[in-house]
Design goal:
7-stranded mixed β-sheet, 166 residues, alpha/beta, single chain
């Protein structure tokens, strides 16, 4: 889940950290605690995270609110990590969450989504609408059901188009 993320990534946004297993993994990979912004909607988990990771920025809120809340001055986040259950979240809320995440991600940044099962939990029509693509970057059969990690990033576009080649 965190293998592509390290201290060179810079600020990291984590959605739904719960008790903090991915947060701990990020710290073990060298991400500084002060570079972590954790978005947790459950008040009990948010309080626990504040005790466990006092140097991190912890926002007790629903991730849907990211759409209207600029977390940084401009896109500053190098990566986002999520264990949110997108299969249980409405398409409208999913789109709002993704818009908020990608508004804070700098160019080249990606969202790493953990899910149970083989399919990407975000509907392809939402990805298409937001010009995003999902790539499976990891999985484990040791989990039941199998756990999979997707890297969701902006589709790379051609900067210029030469109409001579139609």
């Amino acid at each position: 889940m965190t293998q592509d993320i390290g201290p060179e990534t810079g600020p990291v946004l984590e959605l739904g950290p719960g008790t903090g297993p991915f947060t701990r993994a990020l710290l073990e990979r060298g991400v500084r605690e002060r570079d972590l912004t954790l978005v947790e909607s459950d008040p009990d988990f948010a309080a626990l995270l504040k005790r466990r990771f006092p140097g991190a920025r912890i926002l007790e809120m629903d991730a849907v609110g990211l759409r209207h809340l600029p977390l940084f001055e401009g896109p500053a986040v190098g990566a986002a990590v999520s264990g949110l259950p997108f299969r249980l979240i409405t398409p409208r809320q999913t789109r709002a969450i993704l818009e908020g995440v990608f508004a804070n991600l700098r160019p080249g940044g990606a969202l790493y989504q953990f899910t149970l099962g083989w399919r990407c939990p975000i509907d392809q029509s939402i990805l298409d609408c937001l010009d995003l693509e999902a790539t499976r970057v990891g999985f484990t059969l040791r989990n039941f059901p199998p756990a999979t990690v997707y890297r969701i990033a902006r589709i790379k576009t051609v900067k210029t188009y030469d109409w001579r080649f139609l």
